[in-house]
């Protein structure tokens, strides 16, 4: 990343990509992005700009003169498709950074996704809500609860005036509201919103989908904070079961002979996107830490989470780490009377041994 101090051309108002203050530094790669200083340029680069820099020149430069209407329509279609790709990329990146606990870095990605969504769908579209929610969750993580309330209020208002709003978006809204109330110590209200999250996610995806499991996980965390460990344990077990079954299906898909056909089937059953990968790491490691340090831990629960993590790292091609958790699962399952589960771990370890 190179820096290029500017003298603003006369009559041209250049604004910082992050704070909208007067800009004096230009990205010399895309040459269409400006910053108030080096600090904001570096923050944007780490958050999202590195991933989208090459595309911004096409999207932000003035349109060339095209003589025919057909050429102009073709160019507009290409730009529209590219902007939609940018919405997906920036939102996935922002969500990934949130799962990794990098709340400050998630802000530039969310802001970019919001700009692209406004450009494509307009200022009042329901399509803007996912970006508001990422900004809201980032603000919660940074302890800026008043700012989080503003973003979530904007998202909630848009949802309320959009009767056709999907259950998927409603689920994410209620999850973020639950996180906000939990951060404020308002646990009853947090649980109410998380229950709404689980309901809408279940309607959209089913009760045993990884996209529903986040509601169970955050609800378990609320009960954990209240010292209600029996309920929290039950919910953590449910989250582990959901991820375990999902990861098991991916491992089977990837190790199946003959090789599973690629394309849409592969993406649906053999693939996690960046945000889902980060969520799996965050959620499963959090549950593992809880299970590992419980004074009266139950061997089946610890064995299950170890096997789930072993499969996750196998999917990441981190075979050494996969074997490490696999061995922990084997040792822990020695006292587990479930022979089918023990056999599955042994079979998984054989798969790991065969990886070159």
TrEMBL record:
GO terms for molecular function: zinc ion binding. InterPro entries: TPR-like_helical_dom_sf, TPR_rpt, Zinc_finger_MYND_domain, Znf_MYND. Keywords: Metal-binding, Zinc, Zinc-finger. It comes from Lottia gigantea. SUPFAM superfamilies: HIT/MYND zinc finger-like (SSF144232), TPR-like (SSF48452). PROSITE patterns: ZF_MYND_1, ZF_MYND_2. Residues 16-53 form the MYND-type domain. It holds the Pfam family zf-MYND. PANTHER family: ZINC FINGER MYND DOMAIN-CONTAINING PROTEIN 12 (PTHR46533). This is MYND-type domain-containing protein. Gene3D superfamilies: 6.10.140.2220, Tetratricopeptide repeat domain.
């Amino acid at each position: 990343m190179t820096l290029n101090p500017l003298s603003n051309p006369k009559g041209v108002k250049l604004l910082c990509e992050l704070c909208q203050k007067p800009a004096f530094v230009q990205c010399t790669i895309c040459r269409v992005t400006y910053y108030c200083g080096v600090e904001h340029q570096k923050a944007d680069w780490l958050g999202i700009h590195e991933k989208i820099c090459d595309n911004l020149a096409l999207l932000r430069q003035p349109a060339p003169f095209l003589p025919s209407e057909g050429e102009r329509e073709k160019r507009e279609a290409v730009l529209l498709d590219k902007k939609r790709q940018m919405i997906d990329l920036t939102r996935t990146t922002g969500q990934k950074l949130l799962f990794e606990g990098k709340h400050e870095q998630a802000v530039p990605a969310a802001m970019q996704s919001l700009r692209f969504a406004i450009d494509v769908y307009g200022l009042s579209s329901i399509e803007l809500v996912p970006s508001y929610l990422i900004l809201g969750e980032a603000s919660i993580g940074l302890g800026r609860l008043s700012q989080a309330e503003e973003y979530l209020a904007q998202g909630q208002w848009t949802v309320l005036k959009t009767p056709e709003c999907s259950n998927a978006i409603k689920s994410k809204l209620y999850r973020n509201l639950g996180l906000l109330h939990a951060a404020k110590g308002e646990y009853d209200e947090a649980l109410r919103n998380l229950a709404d999250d689980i309901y809408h996610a279940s309607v959209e995806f089913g009760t045993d989908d990884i996209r529903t499991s986040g509601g169970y996980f955050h609800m378990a965390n609320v009960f954990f904070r209240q010292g209600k460990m029996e309920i929290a344990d039950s919910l953590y077990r449910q989250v582990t079961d959901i991820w375990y079954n999902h990861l098991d299906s991916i491992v089977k898909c990837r190790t199946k002979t003959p090789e599973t056909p690629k394309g849409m089937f592969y993406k649906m059953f053999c693939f996690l996107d960046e945000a889902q990968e980060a969520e799996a790491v965050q959620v499963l490691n959090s549950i593992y830490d809880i299970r590992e340090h419980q004074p009266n831990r139950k061997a089946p629960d610890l064995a299950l989470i170890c096997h789930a993590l072993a499969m996750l790292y196998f999917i990441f091609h981190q075979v050494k780490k996969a074997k490490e958790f696999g061995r922990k699962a084997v040792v822990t399952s020695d006292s587990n009377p479930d022979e089918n589960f023990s056999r599955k771990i042994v079979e998984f370890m054989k798969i790991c041994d065969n990886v070159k």
